[in-house]
Design brief:
Helices cover 39% and strands 14% of the residues. It contains 22 helices and 17 strands.
Length: 529
């Protein structure tokens, strides 16, 4: 059975002419007929070429792999127990799920305190991130979690100002940081500014630290969605030329006369802006960390993608040597941006395998007494059961779960419902809950009481969507942890999950369900009254 879906996908707005007779190994119609207008990826590629590399409609969506990976987090089950309580008195009156503590502190020194163990790992210069930033920033701040400003935000800002090749002003980045900080509650959570190679050359993080008061920055090696730099589409010739002048790769060349002529005639309607790939070395990495600390960064993170195992080892070891505060490891399968569609489906190490290799690397360093940074896992997490399993698989090193598509989806839905409410045109499906913000969003009353009426009125609906989604995850996670008798995050262990297949057990080192508790079972069966 093929694990991949080929030649037709909702992501690329392509489909087969024959829905029932499709070659399983090529994805082509079994009978490819002369005269077909070309609805499949091959057909669309015949007239739109490279444009069909990317999911559509570009800039208005988020995307993730549809590949059926051999092992994923559904191949594990959560183990509950009928005895004991870790982190609270073993009393039926006290060991109730609302008493499960989901707060966490990450990083060295004073650390960053979080209400919930979540991080949005990086939403950058794409339109879908920019257009929903208000909801993401305010919602994350209210929830007390980490939010990362992704790559290329400063460099893509048309209003940005530069001096000697370094950024000295960017309204977009300043707005993103300000939104979070204005709504931050009691010092919980943090806004993080990420940088790829272009951002580093432009001095974006130094600007964020010195001018915007950012304390946490992140070096980006890559992501799980693709193994090249970020890309966006540009529909404006002047902007394409501006970005090329700033050092970005822009295709086709917006300064070439024949390209300019073709664009103005409508032969094509979009330019592609690409980022470069980095060239990692220990020396340059440690030097960059030193520069960031000298610039005043209080916390330094690293994000890496689903590269080969040797690169994962580099990420863990380099983060250890540099005494970083957080390492985020993003497995294949997830995604938020506009990655080339086949690349998203067919490259890299899937989340379970990558996260299992990560645990091995961390354990080897720990066994030698070496520093292990706090870890965040990312790559397709959306609900509380997956979050629990990720925390357990990576215990005791994994402190946070990274999610981007799901929080973005929640913010988009909140924003959309807000617009419908303004026009008094709520869909019937939602009208059954009410016709006001306070009736539709189940957390609104609690937030209104906490913030006060006047402040609550300023909360954007997108933020209500994200905050309410996080509230669901929090209670769901509390319930799962209560069932496993773990009443604080630090007590979650690898023994709290079991593998449902031998393959999952072999990959992860997690006990197969039928092998779990073997020794304890024998001890119990040998008890004498």
């Amino acid at each position: 059975m093929s694990l991949s879906k080929l030649n037709a996908s909702a992501a690329t707005l392509s489909k087969n002419r024959t829905q029932d007779s499709i070659s399983p190994f090529s994805g082509m119609c079994v009978t490819c007929v002369d005269g077909c207008i070309g609805m499949c990826e091959i057909g669309k590629s015949a007239y739109r070429g490279h444009e069909t590399l990317y999911p559509q409609p570009f800039g208005a969506i988020t995307t993730a792999s549809e590949k059926n990976y051999p092992v994923d987090y559904s191949h594990f089950t959560i183990m509950g127990t009928a005895v004991g309580a870790a982190g609270i008195e073993a009393s039926s009156d006290l060991a109730i799920f609302p008493n499960v503590n989901l707060e966490r502190k990450i990083g060295r020194g004073e650390g960053i305190k979080l209400k919930l163990p979540f991080v949005i790992p990086g939403l950058g210069s794409t339109d879908v991130a920019k257009n929903n930033w208000e909801g993401l920033a305010v919602g994350s701040a209210l929830a007390g979690t980490l939010l990362t400003v992704g790559e290329n935000v400063g460099g893509m800002d048309e209003e940005a100002a530069f001096k000697n090749g370094r950024i000295v002003h960017t309204a977009d980045l300043a707005r993103r940081v300000k939104l979070f900080k204005e709504w931050q509650q009691d010092g919980y959570g943090a806004i993080v500014v990420q940088a790829n190679i272009e951002d580093t050359r432009l001095g974006v993080q130094e600007y964020a630290v010195s001018k915007l008061g950012v304390e946490a920055v992140e070096i980006k090696w890559g992501q799980g969605a693709k193994d090249i730099g970020g890309e966006v589409k540009i529909t404006n010739l002047e902007k394409a030329q501006l970005l090329k002048a700033r050092g970005y790769i822009v295709l086709p060349d917006p300064e070439k006369p024949s390209v300019i002529s073709a664009f103005r005639k409508g032969a094509f309607k979009e330019f592609e802006r690409h980022s470069r790939v980095g060239m990692v070395s220990l020396e340059s990495f440690l030097q960059r960390v030193k520069e960031l600390r000298q610039a005043g960064a209080k916390y330094i993170f690293l994000k890496t993608g689903s590269y080969r195992p040797a690169d994962l080892a580099r990420a863990v070891k380099f983060a250890s040597l540099a005494k970083l505060d957080l390492l985020t490891v993003d497995g294949s399968g997830g995604g938020t941006g506009m990655s080339p569609w086949r690349m998203m489906n067919e490259w890299g190490i899937p989340s379970v395998e990558l996260h299992s290799l990560l645990h091995e690397c961390c354990s080897k360093l720990a066994a030698k007494g070496e520093y292990v940074p706090d870890i965040a896992l990312a790559g397709g997490f959306i609900l509380e059961d997956q979050i629990f399993k990720g925390l357990a698989l990576g215990a005791p090193y994994v402190k946070l779960i990274g999610m981007a598509r799901a929080p973005l989806a929640a913010a988009m839905v909140g924003k959309t419902l807000g617009r419908h409410l303004e026009k008094d045109k709520l869909p019937v499906y939602v009208q059954r809950f009410g016709n006001s913000l306070e009736e539709v969003f189940v957390t609104a009353a609690e937030l209104k009481e906490r913030l006060g009426h006047d402040v609550f009125q300023q909360v954007p609906p997108g933020a209500l969507g994200l905050y309410t989604y996080y509230e669901r995850l929090a209670q769901g996670l509390q319930q799962l942890m209560c069932g496993s008798r773990k009443f604080a995050l630090e007590y979650i262990s690898r023994g709290d999950i079991a593998a449902l297949t031998r393959e999952a057990a072999d990959i992860s080192g997690i006990s197969f369900t039928m092998d779990a508790d073997r020794e304890e079972v024998e001890e119990i069966l040998n008890i004498r009254a």
